[in-house]
Write a structure and sequence with these properties.
The chain is α+β, with helices and mostly antiparallel strands. A hairpin with an 8-residue loop joins strand 1 and strand 2. The protein has a five-stranded antiparallel sheet, with helices on both faces. The model has no long low-confidence stretch (mean pLDDT about 90).
């Protein structure tokens, strides 16, 4: 059984959950009837995810962050559960035209968001490129 902080236990109130077995990230993801709890190693990136999700709320349809806490270098993000299916669902895997339509609609929504006041000014790609440069310089001088 995974540890769940008291602040989050008060909200989920001993509800039954399933564990997401798709494993698209290094996080543990617990799925409740109305909530999703993401448990992951705390990094600057986890704080950025929280800030951006909170900022996007009201601009496009995203889960609402209900609680975020860090204990013992682990970040716990409790958010509302979004209705729908993942793109790896058989409905989309057997109908690529439908999958592409949904993906393109999502991308259009993101592109239409004005990011001028976004709290995250440096993209993840920019940070990863800087890290890659440091690694290359470290190894190859």
């Amino acid at each position: 059984m995974l540890y769940i902080p008291e602040k989050i236990k008060k909200i989920v109130d001993n509800q039954i959950y399933t564990r997401n077995e798709i494993e698209m990230s290094k996080s543990d993801v617990l799925i409740f009837s109305k909530y999703v709890l993401k448990i992951q190693k705390h990094t600057v990136e986890t704080d950025n995810e929280r800030d951006i999700a909170a900022w996007l709320n009201g601009r496009i349809s995203v889960p609402q962050i209900l609680e975020y806490c860090v204990e013992n270098e682990t970040a716990y993000t409790l958010m509302t559960r979004v209705n729908g299916k993942m793109l790896c669902d058989e409905e989309f895997l057997s109908n690529f035209a439908k999958m592409i339509r949904y993906v393109s609609e999502g991308i259009k929504q993101l592109w239409n968001v004005n990011v001028d006041d976004c709290p995250q000014k440096v993209s993840r790609l920019d940070e990863r490129l800087k890290e890659a440069r440091r690694n290359v310089e470290k190894w190859f001088g």
